[in-house]
Amino acid sequence: MNSTGSHIDFIIGADKRLADIISRAELEPLLRSLVKAGPLYAAVLDEDNLPLCWQGQDDPRHAAREIRYRLVVEGEPKGTLVVAFDADQAHPQDSLALLARDAVQLIISNNLKRMLTTEIHTTVVRDSYDQLVETNRSLAESEKCYRELALSLEQKVEERTAELQMAYARMLQQEKLAAVGSLAAGMAHEINNPNGFVRSNLATFSRYVQKMKEMLSFCQHLIATNTPLPVLQKETDRKRLELKLDFVLDDTSKLLAQSIEGTKRIARIVADMKSFSHVDESGTSDADLNEELRRVMAILAPQLDPAAAIVYDLQPLPLFGCHAGLLSQAFLNIIQNAFLSRTSGLEVNIASRYVDGGIEIDICDNGCGITAENLLRVFDPFFTTREVGSGTGMGLTVAREIIRGAGGTIQISSQEDAGTRVSIRLPLVPREE
Question: pLDDT tens, 298-317?
Fold first, then answer.
């Protein structure tokens, strides 16, 4: 048998002896019937001329004539059929010998076919088993490779996730810095105004103190020189008028009141900024989102045109568990966009309500609106319609990520020259008791 690829060639019998192909038990009935028909004996000899099966007389010397037929296997001689007759037996008896030969040859052929079928089946089963073993081995190797690849991919995914988280943190920090930069000018102006008149008042008060010290020194000198009382009274009145102490005393009270109010105003600005940034807080906490919106508006007030109108419709809201500083950052980014949407005649409506188990916040403006083409890109990182250097293009991107991180959604609807509406929904998650 030769096997190459899917083609199998079988050569049965060339390497087998006759006894391996046909058995004595198969030959005996045939030879016995043949001898009964007339021949003295009949035998099948193997390759070495040794009897494989013999029927009839044991002594071949009584035979007058023997007929021998070669038995072939796959075209190769493998044995001999011998049929012996008496001298007086007619030649037609030869046909019996020929029939016997054909019968024996047929048995040999059938046995070869059976052996071929058996060997093919065995070979196919063995090859199939070997193929299954090889396939299993290949699958095991593939599984090992895929497992290693999966572990490698998992590690790479973790590394990439960590990189993305770091990139997002940097992006958020950069946006915070950008927001702080945009607020700095307004805050500086707001602080400089009261700080300016407090410094001016203190400078004036310093001059007033010098006048008071001068008046005190003058009085001490008169007393020390034993100046008569009428003269003392007259000179002190003259000096008081000269130094304008009546005005100084009256103005000093006003200066101190103004300075105190200025320091309070500075304290309020700092408190608003501190409250907006939630610098003293870490992690999540319960926040009043209406209060967060008010803080954002207090921070952005210096940027607002005095002629602009802000309309509030803030309904009572339940406390919302979140990182309040981040949500304030999102509100600031959105409201800043509204402030920049129109140069004059701006109106911004800020509304909040609790409905259907969630908090809804709408921020609307009557600004220039957004084109349909740009509306599809407003959340894309670094996309901005402002002039170069006037915006980072990250405001709405960061706002969306913050709101998503709080479990909420944000949608923007707008038409060119018809204003913009930003709708935020934050679902309340029931607390576990």
Answer: 878 777 778 888 888 999 99
